[in-house]
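Lab notes, practical 5.
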Amino acid sequence: MRVVIAGGPGKIALLLERLLAERGDQAVGLIRNPAHAAEVRAADAEAVACDLEAATAEDVTALVAGADAVVFAAGADPGSGAARKDAVDRAAAVLMADAAERARDPDWTIVRPGGLTDDPAAGRIRLAPPPVPPGTIPRADVAAVIAALLDHAGTWHQTLELTGGQTPLDEAISTIS
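Output from the prediction step:
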């Protein structure tokens, strides 16, 4: 499976790229800054330069053409102002979705994680359609859930909220699909 990931050098993206490589998939991490290419390659992913704040829909469509999946894991830095947050967190997400739609007939799943931590993966989650009570979740568990959802057509066309919980990851996903 070829998976294009926006925000390739981000914490969740790097974890996802490693998971995908371990299972034999090809991860392609989109990077805004070429200085991050080595980080993405170290996660056994291909690094491709693409500034989503400057790219056109045609540019991004060409990058996602032929991909089996597209993951939007980009985000403005915590200290960014409102304009940059809008440009990355909203406009770039819309650009990626539009490009995926142009390149193929997309199935989609939206995963909205709770507060992110750098704790080790717990492997136990709460995954359900909204609303899910507020909570936190390790980034490693978010990456594991995304990787698993790529293989579960039963979760397509759903918005799912994700926090830490008591249910083993595979069981939680099976319950949704």
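Observations recorded by the TA: The beta strands are 2-6, 26-31, 46-49, 69-72, 109-113, 115-117, 124-128, 136-138, 158-164, 167-168. The domain at 1-106 is CATH 3.40.50.720 (Rossmann fold).
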